[in-house]
Design brief:
Strand content: 15-25%
CATH superfamily: P-loop containing nucleotide triphosphate hydrolases
Helix content: 40-55%
Distance between the termini: 36 Å
Largest sheet: 5 strands, mixed
Structural class: alpha/beta
Oligomer: single chain
Number of domains: 1
Radius of gyration: 16 Å
Order of helices and strands: EEHEEEHEEHEHEHHEH
C-alpha cells in the first residue's frame, strides 16, 4: 500500500471508520445506519473517490479514472489518499469542514490504511466488521465476482490484516443484518451523544 498525501489540522468531530474484509457487509451496514439517521445534517456518510467504475460493486462511490484521480490530487481535493488491491482511494476535503463543525462522519475504510487515517484524523475510531471465515467465503462465492483462487487470496489477506490490527469496536455480522446494523446505529448514537456532551 502507498499513501500519497495527508495534510490537515486536527478536528473535534468523531470520524467512525468502518473496517473489515471484502464480503463482511460494511456497505450493507452503513446503508442500514443511513436509513436510521435519515437526513440529519450532523451525520455525514462519506462517499469515497475510487478508481473503479460505478457499476463494479455495491459501494456508492465517486468513480474516477487514474487521470481524473491525479488531477484531483493535484487540485487538493482530497484530505487523504491510499492505494490497495490495485485501486486508489480518496477521502474528500469537504469531510474536514464537517468534522470541524463537530459533526459525526462515517466512512468505509481500509485496515491496511488505518494507521495513516488515524494520524490524519485524530478523532477517528475503528469499527471492525467481523464475519465467521466460512460464512465470509460463502458470501464471496455467492456474489460471483472472483474466481476460487482470488477468493482464497482475499481470505488470506483478511487473516493477515486481522493478526496486526486492533479495533476500538468490533461488530459481528455473521448472522442477521438487523442485529449488526442495530449495533452500528447504537454506537453512532453514543458517539453523537458524547460529542454533544463534550
Amino acid at each position: 500500500m502507498q499513501v500519497f498525501e495527508s495534510h490537515r489540522s486536527p478536528s473535534p468531530g468523531p470520524l467512525i471508520v468502518v473496517l473489515g474484509p471484502s464480503g463482511s457487509g460494511k456497505d450493507t451496514l452503513m446503508s442500514y445506519a443511513r436509513n436510521e439517521f435519515g437526513d440529519r445534517s450532523d451525520v455525514l456518510f462519506v462517499k469515497r473517490a475510487i478508481t473503479r467504475p460505478a457499476d463494479a460493486g455495491s459501494e456508492d462511490h465517486i468513480a474516477m479514472t487514474d487521470a481524473e484521480f491525479d488531477a484531483s490530487v493535484d487540485g487538493g481535493a482530497f484530505s487523504l489518499t491510499w492505494a490497495a488491491n490495485g485501486l486508489r482511494y480518496g477521502l474528500p476535503r469537504a469531510l474536514e469542514a464537517h468534522l470541524a463543525s463537530g459533526g459525526l462522519a462515517v466512512v468505509n475504510g481500509s485496515r491496511g490504511a488505518w494507521s495513516i487515517i488515524r494520524q490524519v484524523f485524530p478523532s477517528a475510531v475503528a469499527v471492525e466488521i467481523k464475519v465467521d471465515p466460512d460464512i465470509l467465503a460463502q458470501r464471496l462465492e455467492a456474489r460471483g465476482r472472483e474466481s476460487a483462487s482470488e477468493i482464497e487470496a482475499r481470505l488470506r489477506r483478511a487473516q493477515a490484516l486481522d493478526n496486526g490490527f486492533e479495533a476500538d469496536v468490533v461488530i459481528d455480522n455473521s448472522g442477521e443484518v438487523t442485529a449488526a446494523g442495530a449495533a452500528l446505529v447504537a454506537y453512532m448514537a453514543q458517539a453523537i451523544a458524547e460529542a454533544q456532551a463534550g
